[in-house]
Specification:
The complex is a heterotrimer. Chain A is mainly alpha-helical. Chain A is 72% helix and 2% strand. In chain A, the strands form 2 sheets. In chain A, strands 1-4 form a two-stranded antiparallel sheet. The chains are: A mainly alpha, B alpha/beta, C mainly alpha.
Amino acid sequence: MSANRWLATGNFFSTYQEEQRIFFTHSDRTIFSIFLVLIFVWPILFPLSNKYMLVIDNTLIAIIAIIGLNLLTGFAGLISIGHAAFVGIGAYTIASFCTLIGEDHMLITHAWPLLILISGGVGAFFGAIVGLPAMRLKHLYLAIATLSFQMIFIWTIQFMDFFNQGQTISVGRVYWIFGKVSRDQHYLFWYYAILVFIVVLGFMVRNLLRTKYGRCLTAVRDNDRAADAMGMHPGFTKVYAFGLAGFMAGIAGALHAYLYRGVGFESFTLNESITYLAMAIVGGLGTLPGSFLGPAAIKALDLLVEYFAANVASLMPSSQDVATGLRPLVFGLVIVLFLMFEPRGIANWWRIVRSYFKLWPFRY
Amino acid sequence: MKKGKKFLVVVFLTLIACAFLLNACAKKEEEKEGVVYKLGLSLAITGPTSDAGNPYSKGVEDYFNYVNDTKMLGNDTIECIIKDDQYKTDITKRNFEDFLSNGIVLYLNYSTGSTLALKKDFDEEKIPTIPASFHAGNLVDSSYIFLPIASYSEQTVGLAEYVVNNHQGDMAKVAMFIHPSAFGRGPVEDLQKAVEAGLKMDIIEVVEHGKDLDNTAMLQRLLSKNVQYVICHTVQSPVATLLTDAERLGIAAKSFGESGKLTFLGVHYTGGNDLIALAGAASESFLWTTSYVLTSEPGKWTDKQLDLAKKYNRDDKTANSHNYTNGIMVAQVAAEVILRAKDKGLEITRDNLYKELLAMNGGNAFEPGSTVGPVTYSETDRAGVDQLQLYVVKDGVFTAVGSTFQSEYIKKIK
Amino acid sequence: MTYFFQLVVSGIVVGSIYALSALGFVLIYKSSRVLNIAHGQIIAAGAFITYALTVWAGIPIYISFVLSMIITFFLAMSVERIFLRRLIGEPIISVIMVTIGLMSILDGLIYLTPFGAENFSFPKFLPNTPILFGGVSISWTQLVGVIITILMIIGFSWFFKKSTMGISMRAVSDDQLASMSVGISVPKVFGLAWATAGLSAAAAGTILGNITGLNFDTLHAFGIIVFPVVILGGLDSVLGAVVAGIIMGLIQQFAKGYLDGNFGLYGTGQVLPYIILLVILLFKPHGLFGIHEIERV
């Protein structure tokens, strides 16, 4: 342990406990606390329009989903091309409750935190079931298994009357201590609600990763035979990784249902699954900061390209086709460029910036 | 930093710089006199159903430009913000919130899915909405959605009535071929109700199609059940495959109701020039109903639409698309209510436009010219044009059959 | 019984198109272990190029079909050169994601052309009347499609069995290091694998376009439906792709013919391939003809 608890310019660990601390120095902790306060305070100081609030809420939900996907794909090395289906399972859990007991039932409008957790549980259950083939399959074959789960999920939703055949099932407005959340407060309210979930889940995952249960994920990814020899059960670990990812996705899905006040199958298609994968990769696989940076970057890019396309369209009238074609083009280019030039994702930039400041101003 | 990373950063920065630069350029437009009325349209210009959405958006855009260029509203202008949502409900919602903060007075929507999903928002915001989806379910539990023309259910029942009236022999045996979504399933129940209410036909089977390459199995099955008529309610591409397969099997009727063969009929989104483009000669004698006037039928409107397309440099394909007409017609209705409210000296607000829309009936009915009948709305009837026209493909073009008609049974089952 | 045979015939028609689409997919996987998710977009691009040459440039369809295969051959080769060459040796997920990015890029490029949003159909160059054998009918377009598919498959098998290039491709798929040591250029083989995949994709796209008409949504959906086919056949078996394509076509037609409309089921033809896919993955992951390389965990 370095003598100065505020600054540490090098590696002074003398025990494993020290290495596993969440915050290495006091300044880390202080900066983080200030940051946390800031993200809770800014919407009150600078109110945004509903559109941007919706985008931000949506990004936060994607962050929860990506934390799950990153545990699965980044830490445990299991590729999933069906993450949107797990998110869908969470959303459809809420939708099923709405169909069964009515969208304005007390349970849905008042006990929503409980329902969101239940959705997470249902997501975890389905995650573990889909993960069962992981006992036998590796790599690409597993990726294809998750793809087929995605297709079967969409078919089930579209052909079952219970799920309104994929049509929107609406979800009622929720209540909290000050009464019903009105339309004006809706997006702000869910900003805070989702934020609370993220902070809790974020700390949970950060802690998980420094325990036996977190480290066994990485061990199985790096070498499953060695992990087996060390006494871990690789098959069980993989199923458990799928369960964890399903839990996160389920919570994200339930939040999505409440935020959009309705559930329809369009939000959980193969396209969305691919977007989730792109977020995880751009953020940086196998890093926790990447789970936060990836969704933010992709959503910001989406807005930026839309803005760009709209401006192109206004400059060159009747070239709407050109402008709209740019959107997938730029999206694809960003993914490909990242993979070619920065395969470790934005999280790597974050790491570089941090290590720069660690030694600043004496960089030699 | 490695060379690659630098490159990536440069690409990003250029992109951001371009966006801002473009924004600066775009904002240099001259200040207009008069008031600007803002409208919003969110639709699928790319992605699924963009073959319909694309000409639709051009129709809306051109007509509002026409309104502004010909000073139809005096010095006042209409600014319609058009945004692509790729047929994704989530993006539609985002666009809608964006439009609201821009202060729109009327909203134009597109897909059935998003209309149903945002139904509550329209009611809470009290904003009159005209979707491109004619799904009858849009009107249930909602009072701010106005369909441009008769609902899919009304069109389907209308077609069924045509079948019953012209069928020779005993009970007509009918199958339905529908899109596997809310959009497709809507009219099924209404047709069943019409049959219960006394429409003399048997619905033998309701088929939901997928992305099929070959419909042989299904067509043979229908034939073995003595089905004679197939009413289609989906988009063009699956109907085209269905028609080519029927033609190949030699079971497509050459004239209406030919016995031992199948006669195909379709609702608004199944038809149009795109169907002929996809199915070619197999589309011959396909029957289609809609409320729009087609450019293949010479007349006053045809010239007007072609002139409009020419004025704004649209290609032939767009100019002759019925979805282009559809877009124009929606814009016509929107411009008309604004004009009416303005003439009465009312302030242009959501509420006043809503009242104007509801008052559009009786002597106040609106004749846009682009449809086969007048647009009428009231408290109880929020479907615009009630008249339908039947078209049949003859020598590669849709030609009108008989005069316009209205569905009788749809009133009985309401 | 006629009904049954009709289903068999349509199953074989649909199946042979699956086979041709899956062929390109397997070629890429076999040589470079890349799962090409953008395959559907390449199929669509091939079909659009044929259309543009036939209708806009006025070249007879027989020639434009061959031209389009050649163009797509070089297109796919350059895709490999630009995007995938740099990623040799990177983890599998990066490579899959590059093909996903590629899919998005091709989507964008196609939206810049009229093909993105509009529908087209090939001019009819074959007789319209169906061919009948005792109640079972097949159209000329389908028949010609099946014949071209069979010819191409025979051509490919000859290529792999007899030609030097084909043998070196097989060698690379067997053992990269060993083939490098005998002087085979591995990157060149990868490029060639993509190029031949592009060629077969263009053929598949054109045949498909003649049967269904040109609609971008319908065409690129084919990139996903090949997954069940290649898994059933074994990811690295050319023969497997062909056999599994036809089996899958038959299963789909039988499902539609005998399941749909009974028992209140619909669209079984769409979902059944994926259910079979899951079952195969659980019990026989290397498929019918694949090499047994799956390790148990």
